[in-house]
Amino acid sequence: MQGDGEVLFLGGVGEVAVTLGHDGLSFLPLHPELGSSCLSSIGLLPKLENKIKFSDVYAVELLDEGPVCGPWNTRIVAQGKKNSEMHRFAVHVITRSRKHPSQLVPCEYLFGHKDPETCKSWVEHLSACINNEQDRPKNLMVFVHPLCGKGRGCKNWEMVAPLFDRAKVNTKVIITERAGHAYDTLASISDKELKKFDGVVAVGGDGLFNEILNGLLNSRNKISYPPTPEGFGYFGSTEKCQGCRNDGLNNSTATSDAVNVMLRVGSNKSDDHEPLLSTGKSVVGLDISSLNPNTESSTGDQVPPVFFPNDWFRLGIIPSGSTDAIVLRYGFYGEVIRESENYRWMGPARYDFSGTMVFLKHRSYDAKVAFLENENSHSFAASAENVADEVQPLQSRRKRSRKTICQANCSVCKETSTPGQNSEDEIPNSSQTIHNNPKWIWSEGRFLSVGAAVISCRNERAPDGLVAEAHLSDGFLHLLLIRDCPLPLYLWHLTQFTKKGSDPLTFKFVEHHKTRAFTFISSHDESVWNLDGELFQACEVSVQACRGLVNLFASGPEV
Which residues are in the DAGKc domain (predicted)? Predict the structure, then answer.
């Protein structure tokens, strides 16, 4: 009967003919001349759509008999029309905010009917349709950082927890008590226990997400060590080598790239700056997969090991930190993080204060960087000469080709290239190609900063992000080398990040390389990196983008 259209009463609209389709629920107002405006228990609907997609529905709820508001307009209010009492059910959905279209907010459609069995039948049909969607999680592990973003982690979780309850998603909530808590928990959890969950959610900032990612992948990924140029080889040595570290993302499912990091520290005090990798044993020279043997269950049966990538386990982020950016940066940005540690009591404002202090010092660093050539894309590089002598204020910008922005259902990330074509979008799923015939390009000199990002890192302060054209899952990272330059020019470069539509990477002292891997070598021991908001001390680093290593609870970046 539903397929032919059944008359129900929709709160704020009046009588509607409702039809149940294969991908959603559609309805047609029978009296559109009355106008529509829907008030719900959660708030005002941004815009009343005539179709509800099952993918936007997180719960269907049978309610007690009660009032359902009729169609609202000035004439009806003046006549003193009252709400109708009837049997009800609510369809809870996620929709876009009216003020901020990129934000998703919860709201509800309230339906009513005089017959309680009709409401019950609709709830059963809709619940069955929703439960048939395979991607819906049933059990999640949630890590909450109580001190992130001026202590708003717990408050943010308390705000969204009812949504999980209403959606009948079981959550195991862990409030972190120390640095490394999430990492230790996930690194030590058995595969049998991990398989009870459909994913892990981080309620915190970039540092907590980094802990979760490293804890999961510590012994569960088969990715080899990042490639290095000939002569770099420190992999055979165990001295001061901290092993592999992972950073980054993949998309409801959005697949995302992760970054595999190999490092050599520059001092014996590195453990103070790197709490997330204190596993107590070196992984140098070991096959990473061998660290996680099959686990026997209590009955003696072998439990198949969990490896990444896989198609069933996903990660989620409920942003609650100060920056919530997933990025690797060195030099200026690393110094900002180190300086800001002294002012954590200031909350997010500590980055503005510390950034100003570090900027005024205008410190540069001698370093060498080697990156793998990407034949299918262009790099934008400065010459190694003194840019202060060659740059004029109005002539210091280069023109770049039009950017392809990553967004939901991105064709680049979905690998839409025809098999066999040698296109930029056709990226192998493994690192085998990287290790076969690598061609390294070196850049040497004094740098104000060195950065790498696998996503654009768009945020309120940088509306286009660090690299506007970075894609979530194309197998590449974007290497940014900022050469030493006069302070006013560097300030001009930094201010361009705050302007939407601007391009801060067109300055002649800026090198932008799209690559799959790079190696960094500094000439001094005090080298501090900003890795997802965490301090990370290393004088030699090798980094590789691993395509599609993890999956996210997301549909892709919003533009």
Answer: 135-232
